[in-house]
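REVIEWER CHECKLIST
Item 1: Sequence provided? yes
Item 2: Single chain? yes
Item 3: Sequence as submitted:
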Amino acid sequence: MPGKITVVVLFGGRSSEHSISCATAGGVLEAIDRSRFDVIPVGITREGAFVLEDDDPSKFRLDPTALPVVADNGTRVLWPSSTASRELRVVPADGGAIRSLGEVDVVFPILHGPFGEDGTVQGLLELVGLPYVGSGVLASALGMDKHFTKTVLAASGIAVAPWVTVTAREWATSPAAVMDAASALPLPLFVKPARAGSSVGVSKVTSLESLGEAIEVALREDSRVLIEQGISGREVECGVLGGHDGGAPRVSVAGEIVMTGREFYDFDAKYLDAPGVDLVCPAALSDEELAEMQRIAALAFTAIDGAGLARVDFFLTADGFVVNEINTMPGFTPISMFPKCWIASGVSYPEIIDELIALALEG
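Item 4: Structure as written out by the authors:
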C-alpha cells in the first residue's frame, strides 16, 4: 500500500486578507483526509515570516470578535535550498538545532491577496521545484490584478464592465482629469483597489461628489484603482476545477448572491455572516443560461491560463452575462460560495481537496 502524501498547507500572509486565509486554511485542515495525507501547517505572519503552525482547525475559525491570525511563535520554516531536495526544515523557537520536517510532496498555498495569490509565492515554489495547488505565476498575477484580468478577458471576447484605471500619481497630479474620465461612466460606480480581494477597500459611489473619498479609500490598499460602471443584474458565481491530463476545465452549478438589505456584497457579508445577504445554491437558471455561464467561465479560466481552481463571478443582465472577476484562490470558509457550488454539484468538501492535490501532482 503506498504511503501517505505529505501536504504543506500554507496560509496567512502579508495582505489585508490575512485572516480570511487563516479561516480558509482552518476549513482545509478540518476536512482533509488524514488517512491519505500527512499535513504540515506553515503560517506566514503579517510581517512575512514563515512559521510552523499548530495543526488545529479550531484555532483558525472565523470569529467576528477575534479574527484568526498567524502569530510569530519564534519558529522559522526553511524551504529547500534547491530543486535537488524536497526536504522542509524548521528552526525551533528556542534557537536549538534545526530539525527536519521530512520530504514534501505538494504545497497547498491557501493565500488571498498580494504576496500570495498574485504569483509571488508561486514563483518561490517554482524556484525550488515544489508542486503546488492552483494557478501558476502568470495566471495568479493576472487574476489578482483587476485591470489586466479585464484586459485579457475583453480581448478573448468576454463581456466585462466598462472601467477606468487610475494610479496614485494620476490622482495626486491630475484629479480633474480623473474626475472627467470617471464622469463618462454612468452612475452608480464601484471603486476598487486593482490588486486586493474580499471587497477590501471597495466603495459604491452614487454621486460624483463622493468619488474622491472612495478613490482615497481604495488607494490605501493599492497604488492603482479601478473605477467601474455599476452593472444592473443578478450576481451569480460558479466554481471551476482544472481538467485532468490537460483536459477541459470543469464548471460547477451556479450560486447566486441575493441582496436583501446591503448595498453590495462586502467583507462582513462574505466572511462574518452579516445580515442582508442570502447565498442561494443552486441558482434558479434555465438550462440554457447555466450552459452559457459554464461556457464563459471555462473560457475565462483558459484565457488567463488558469490551473487547479477558480471562482468566476458574473452579472446576469438583460443582455447576457458580464464577468465581474475571476478569483484564482477563492475562499474555502464554511459560508464561501466555491465549496457551496461544488457540493451542490455532487462533489464533497474533502473530494474538492483530493481533486486539487491530484491536479497539482499531475503538474
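Item 5: Key structural point noted by reviewer: The longest helix spans residues 287-303.
Item 6: Recommendation: ____
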